[in-house]
Amino acid sequence: MAAPSAAASAPKSCPGPDRNPRRPRFAVPQGACDTHVHVFGPAAQFPFSPARSYTPEDCTVEDLFALHEVLGIDRVVIVHGGAHGTDNRATLAALDRAPERMRGVAVIPSGLPQAEIEAMHRRGMRGCRMSTVVSGGASFEHLPRLAAETRDFGWHLVLHFHRAEELLDVERELVDCGSPFVLDHLARITAAEGVGSEPFAAVLRLLDTSRCWVKLASLYRLSAEPYPHRDMLPLIHRVVAHRPDRILWGSNWPHPICPVPMPNDGDLVDLIPLWILDADHRRLALVDNPAALYGFAPTDD
């Protein structure tokens, strides 16, 4: 078999986010947490991985702070970006800027010394992510070992699926692993697959373990309709009704590898009351659930 061409294997260039987020009409509650963002670079200080599958623009922690000032977001979870591979320095440096209101999810291989995981934990890491979407990180083959190696620190596992059917392949491992786990992006179930699909049935089964959390983020990728993506509502409403105490919300800023028109993050915040109809459930998803999973201090109100 011929080797792939340089052009075929070169990382894809990703456009940056909308740099002019509008202030949303929906006011999030005090202590609201955006549980899914990435920071990239600056590449001159934190080089991208040579094994990456995409090359983003610099999207720094300063850019993130400015965004959340507009959106009214108090807390944030930085999910280490695939462009940096398993070199977590960019995310750790960002966490050091505001440790009381920031947490992180690392991308690490199994087999790291416990002292290295402990050092990341002290700086705010609370989970580790595996992906079949981006290269240069950790695959699902690492799942049982990462669960064992991070369990004593209380870390959760994050599953980033390329296709929803992949959930069925790891469902038994997730049940057996003993660790909390997060299904990124509603387990990548599309509107076309819907609530009658086998992956969605698996999501409901896993939620019933009480160790599963579902993240509502990047759902614009899963819709066949333009904003406000109403074809996603049956999936969202069903999963929220099933376990409102296990729902998380995230913006997915700065929206890497975005296959649709780049969203404005103010528009995404305004989807929250459409997705989560009950005010008490919105508070769970935005404040209480992230506080429980990531270890934030209680809010004053």
TrEMBL record:
One of its GO terms (molecular function) is hydrolase activity. InterPro entries: Amidohydro-rel, Aro_Compnd_Degr_Hydrolases, Metal_Hydrolase. Coiled coil: none annotated. Residues 33-296 form the Amidohydrolase-related domain. Residues 1-27 are annotated as: Disordered. It holds the Pfam family Amidohydro_2. Residues 1-11 have a biased composition (Low complexity). SUPFAM superfamilies: Metallo-dependent hydrolases. This is GntR family transcriptional regulator.
